[in-house]
Design brief:
Elements: E1 5-6, E2 15-16, H1 39-53, H2 57-68, H3 74-90, H4 94-107, H5 112-128, H6 132-145, H7 154-166, H8 170-183, H9 189-201, H10 205-218, H11 223-235, H12 239-250
Antiparallel strand pairs: 1-2
Length: about 250
């Protein structure tokens, strides 16, 4: 990976550049020539993929490792590293998976769809590894370089929201979960719970009551929601509504 760094916000420690930013800047349109696998490489890759499909990850890795030692084009190298990254991730060797994915991105030869997917996969792996600062920068970079259609993935907005929570940036987390909710037609109850938590962290009790109304519609027998509703009304000094919510809570 390139030695380029960005300024860190804390203690002036240099931060690692987003994977992929060496060859692609925010707002740029990525253009890459289509790559081809030789027949020999294709056959060996296909055999490895069959083993991956059968969850024979160690065997697939051994084959891919041997293949990586062959004379390959940069496109073939990137394809092999992508496959090895997937296998390592399935084996929960996340650090190794990140290294393979980083190399696949550094080679900058894969088609856009695969390239952008790997950028996002790296962010997800950083999150699993509790490297939240890097994960958030990587997700933001993915949003910056991805197509408009790709940006409509609600689950990625939820990942961004959760990473902002790790940074205790509740306003940005709220903005991200709002975007996720807008994009998904069948919103999980847990997403509304997340949104409620952000409003409460920000002492935004009026919007919190609106979210609680939605949660109560989804799950009217959950006593906790009625109690939280009463608490929000008390914060708003609306005692009549608070008492009404408490009475309904006791009926659950």
């Amino acid at each position: 990976m390139s030695g380029a760094v960005i300024a860190a916000c804390v203690l002036a420690v240099p931060a690692k550049a987003q994977v992929g930013s060496e060859s692609l800047r925010c707002g740029e349109q990525r253009q890459v020539q289509p790559g081809l696998l030789s027949q020999s490489t294709y056959n060996r890759m296909n055999s490895a993929f069959e083993k991956l499909g059968e969850e024979q990850y160690d065997e697939a890795l051994a084959d891919l490792r041997k293949l990586s030692e062959s004379r390959l084009s940069n496109f073939e190298k990137a394809s092999v590293h992508q496959a090895m990254g997937f296998a390592r991730a399935q084996l929960e060797d996340y650090e190794a998976a990140v290294r393979h994915f980083e190399e696949a991105i550094r080679l900058d030869q894969l088609p856009n769809q695969a390239h952008f997917e790997i950028i996002l996969q790296i962010a997800q792996l950083y999150n699993v590894l509790h490297r939240y600062d890097e994960a958030l920068r990587q997700v933001d970079f993915w949003f910056c370089v991805s197509t408009e259609d790709l940006k409509k993935q609600a689950e990625v907005w939820m990942l961004k929201a959760s990473l902002h929570v790790q940074e205790e940036d509740y306003s940005e987390a709220l903005a991200a979960v709002d975007q996720a909710i807008e994009l998904r037609p069948d919103v999980p109850e847990s997403w509304f719970q997340f949104k409620l938590g952000m409003h409460l962290q920000l002492s935004q009790y009026r919007p919190a009551t609106e979210v609680l109304k939605t949660l109560i519609r989804l799950n009217p027998d959950r006593k906790e929601y009625w109690i939280q509703m009463a608490g929000s009304y008390l914060e708003l000094e609306e005692r009549v509504e608070a008492m009404s919510a408490l009475r309904l809570a006791h009926r659950r």
